[in-house]
Specification:
The complex is a heterodimer of chains A (302) and B (279). Chain A has a domain of 189 residues: ABC transporter involved in vitamin B12 uptake, BtuC, CATH 1.10.3470.10. Helices cover 76% and strands 0% of the residues of chain A. Chain A has 12 helices and no strands. The N and C termini of chain A lie far apart (47 Å). Chain B is of the alpha/beta class and 279 residues long. Chain B folds into 2 domains: 152 residues, Rossmann fold (3-Layer(aba) Sandwich); 65 residues, no CATH class. Helices cover 30% and strands 26% of the residues of chain B. In chain B, a hairpin with a 2-residue loop joins β1 and β2. In chain B, α2 packs parallel to α4, α3 packs across α4 and α4 packs parallel to α5. The chains are: A mainly alpha (302), B alpha/beta (279). At the A-B interface, α6, α7 and α10 of A face β6, α2, α4 and α5 of B.
């Protein structure tokens, strides 16, 4: 296994922290991501990453830990989107787009200011594309605590959230409070996106949020299996991305390590491609369903 | 579980009284009155856009009327009333949605509950029983999104019935189904209504497939309703008063054709009954 795990990999404190934080965050991202994909809120998820970016950049400027900015920014963004009307189907894209635009503009300002005012290099790179190897091990408790809160909240609202993701009318007829549930989920989404921002950066959080769940959904018939597979694929992509980035230091004679985010996204894309191929293979192998002959469906239900 | 009291055929289950609804300043329903009795099969008949869905939303407590009242067992309506089951119109599940038919039925029991409570053996049995009642065991373990329209409709009926409501509301469950599936769903509803002692209130723009099973009809036009047995309501004088102009009712081989088409009324029922024009 020496080809994969370069010597000294696990002896390195920042690598160990990175692997641990990465695994925790990938679990949260996978679970939250499944609901995001089922609810068709990928765009909202992406807008929240941009708000997280503004928050992260602002935190850097103010000298606060990036995680505070990422998560805080996202939560404020979720609130703003709710106020503008993300809950209404009609207003959804507009609310998302407005918040996304405002946040990106703010991020541009913060990043410019920090680039011109501080001597620190690479701020933009860190905020946008992450820098997991610079995460302090003291951040770990905060990451674990936030993750626990997100997962516990999802465990509580899981069933009504799932039913409302299937069909709003069915859920409201059962007495599910759509607005409250929708808002709580947006906040959860914001926290999750803020957490993954510290690994692969704010604007790439969407990749980790959407990629593994989308791959998982191509392969499963049961919701629980989808959650488990999304988590496994997300953790795999994150850990493999970190290891490959570490290894890349030794690949060239110039000894320049390539970014973790790049490798995470590569693994996510490979997973998605493989899942799509498996799904296509299964579909072409599946016999023509007997129901087509029995009941007929000339109108074309799909 | 269903309220056991008053479950006697012929006694009042639901009453809609003097209900007016306007949405965004547009009048949808005007002075709507009717009742539904225990165990009855009632059709809500009207053209597309005549306010059938709005009426269902009022009954479900999702739309507050400007005036009037809906009572269940003589009590004012409450939101998420367990006496009511609902099958919305045009429910389409994505083929990738990782929900099997049996999962959807199970969500009919606990889809509104918070927390990760384990599903009890009694719940699993209730789900199996309901899948059997709608003749859906064959595809119980397949994803709902991959089922045909008629099959999805049966699973939705099981989802709505598994909490043992006394009244099942179905919004245009026959639209978009081929004639074979239409007959199947109607026969199924009739059977289930009898076996589970549940009243059915079903909306449709085409009443002929329902004639053999309907105990009563609530006919909507121009935001107003006429209700009673088919013979009481589907008559030229009653429907003419409802539409506000002369309407003919033709009976051909046990089928009914409402010719409401006037120059002034584009909601011609002829357009809604294409197969009758052909015959």
């Amino acid at each position: 296994m020496n080809w994969l795990f370069e010597p000294g990999l696990f002896a390195n404190q920042s690598v160990r922290t990175a692997l641990l934080v990465g695994a925790v965050v990938a679990v949260v991202s996978g679970v939250v991501g499944i609901f995001t994909v089922l609810r068709g809120q990928s765009f909202a998820g992406h807008a929240l990453t941009d708000v997280a970016m503004a928050g992260g950049a602002g935190a850097f400027l103010a000298g606060v830990a990036p995680l505070v900015g990422f998560v805080g920014g996202g939560v404020v963004g979720a609130g703003a989107m709710d106020v503008i009307g993300v809950q209404r189907v009609k207003g959804r894209d507009i609310a998302t787009g407005v918040v996304l635009g405002a946040a990106t503009g703010l991020a541009a300002l913060f990043l410019y200011l920090s680039a011109t005012q501080s001597a620190a290099t690479g701020t933009t790179q860190l905020i946008l594309f992450g820098s997991i190897f610079t995460v302090q091990s003291s951040t770990l408790p905060a990451v674990v605590a936030l993750s626990a809160v997100v997962l516990a909240t999802l465990a509580i609202i899981g069933r009504p959230l799932l039913l409302s993701s299937l069909n709003l009318e069915l859920a409201s007829a059962r007495g599910v409070r759509l607005r409250a549930i929708g808002f709580v989920f947006m906040v959860i989404l914001a926290v999750s996106v803020g957490l993954s921002a510290i690994i692969i950066g704010s604007i790439l959080s969407t990749a980790l949020l959407i990629g593994p769940p989308a791959s998982a959904l191509k392969l499963v018939t049961r919701f629980g299996a989808g959650v488990v597979l999304a988590v496994v694929l997300g953790v795999l992509a994150t850990l493999l991305g970190i290891v490959l980035a570490y290894d890349s230091y030794y690949w060239t004679s110039s000894h320049r390590a390539l970014p973790v985010s790049f490798f995470v996204v590569v693994v996510v894309v490979v997973e998605f491609t493989l899942a799509s191929l498996v799904q296509r293979r299964r579909r072409s192998k599946a016999p023509v369903p007997a129901r087509a002959a029995v009941h007929g469906d000339p109108i074309g239900w799909h | 579980m269903a309220l056991a009291h008053m479950d006697v055929a012929g006694s009042e289950l639901l009453r809609v009284e003097k209900v007016d609804v306007s949405i965004d300043g547009r009048e949808i329903l005007n002075d709507v009155n009717f009742r539904i009795d225990h165990g009855e099969f009632t059709g809500l008949i009207g053209a597309n856009g005549s306010g059938k869905t709005t009426l269902f939303r009022v009954i479900l407590g999702l739309q507050t009327p400007q005036r009037g009242e809906v009572t269940v067992h003589g009590e004012p309506l409450q939101r998420s009333n367990r006496s009511l089951g609902y099958v919305p119109q045009k429910v389409l599940f994505d083929p990738d949605m990782p929900i099997r038919a049996r999962d959807l039925v199970a969500l009919g029991i606990d889809g509104n509950r918070y927390g990760l409570t384990r599903r009890t053996r009694a719940n699993h049995l209730a789900v199996d029983e309901m899948l059997f009642a709608v003749d859906a065991q064959e595809f119980a373990d397949r994803k709902v999104g991959g089922l045909s329209g008629g099959e999805q409709q049966r699973v939705l009926i099981a989802h709505a019935l598994v909490s043992r409501p006394e009244l099942l509301l179905l919004d245009e469950p026959l639209a978009n189904l081929d004639p074979g599936s239409v007959a199947e769903i109607i026969a199924l509803l009739h059977k289930v209504a009898t076996q589970q002692h549940v009243a059915i209130f079903l909306s449709a723009h085409e009443m002929n497939p329902l004639l053999p099973v309907m105990d009563r009809v609530v006919y909507v036009a121009n935001g107003r309703v006429a209700s009673g047995t088919t013979d009481e309501v589907v008559r030229p004088d009653v429907l003419s008063a409802l539409y506000g102009h002369h309407v003919d009712v033709l009976r051909v081989h046990g089928r009914v054709l409402v010719v409401a088409g006037q120059d002034s009324d584009e909601s011609s029922s002829v357009a809604d009954h294409p197969e009758l024009v052909v015959e």
